[in-house]
Amino acid sequence: MLKLSNTVEIADWEIEITQIRAQGNGGQNVNKVASAVHLRFDIQNSALPAFYKTRLMALQDQRISKEGIIVIKAQSFRTLELNKDDALERLKEMIQEAVKVQKVRRATRPSKSARRKRVDRKTQKGKTKALRGKVQV
Fold first, then answer.
1. Can you give the pLDDT at residue 59?
2. Contact present, 11 and 1 (Cβ < 8 Å)
3. Three-state secondary structure along 93-131?
4. Model confidence at 30, in pLDDT bands (50, 70, 90)?
5. Which of 16, 31, 34, 98 sits most deeply, having the most CB atoms within 10 A of its CB?
6. Residue 6: which pLDDT band, with cuts at 50, 70 and 90?
7. Rounded (5°) CA angle 130-135-137
8. In 3-state terms, what secondary structure has residue 32?
9. What are phi and psi of 69, to 5 degrees?
10. Residue 26 has pLDDT above 70, yes or no
């Protein structure tokens, strides 16, 4: 059971976890032990609320296929259990980021004093540059 919030949870049967062999270095052990994890989660066939599903499908993430299946590969750790926990945590973070409501940005204008200071700085800079010219004899 993966708890996303107080009211939303993902059941274990909705998440498909398969063991695979990790890529990269590891000597002889890497060819024998399947310690990496492939996590697959089908957004459309899950019990998530509709709001969650639409927000996840709208994400432009390479881990989400066109069919709405999230695939996460975890192979950072040497043990299967740690990789499984890592994959579940990454799925949880992905879903929570997708449903986070962005704060509405309101356009603001600089204050009168800020505009005045900006123009004064520009004028001062111009005077400094004007003094860099050739000296008249």
1. 86
2. yes
3. HHHHHHHCCCCCCCCCCCCHHHHHHHHHHHHHHHHHHHC
4. low
5. 98
6. confident
7. 145
8. coil
9. -110, 125
10. no
Q: Domains of the chain by range and CATH? A: 2-99 (3.30.160.20)
CA-nearest of 91, 93, 101, 102 to 43 is 91
pTM to 2 decimal places: 0.69
| Average pLDDT value for residue range 40-61 | 89
Q: What is the CA radius of gyration of the chain?
A: 27
Question: Sorting pLDDT into bands at 50, 70 and 90, what band is 11?
Answer: confident
Structure tokens at 2: 């993966």
Ordered DSSP codes for 35-96: -EEEEEEESTTS---HHHHHHHHH---TTB-TTSEEEEEE-SSSSHHHHHHHHHHHHHHHHH
- Mean pLDDT for the chain overall: 88
Residues in the chain: 137
Rounded CA-CA distance 13/17 in Å is 10
Question: 52 is written with which tokens?
Answer: 């969650």
Q: Among 37, 47, 42, which residue's Cα sits nearest to residue 57?
A: 42
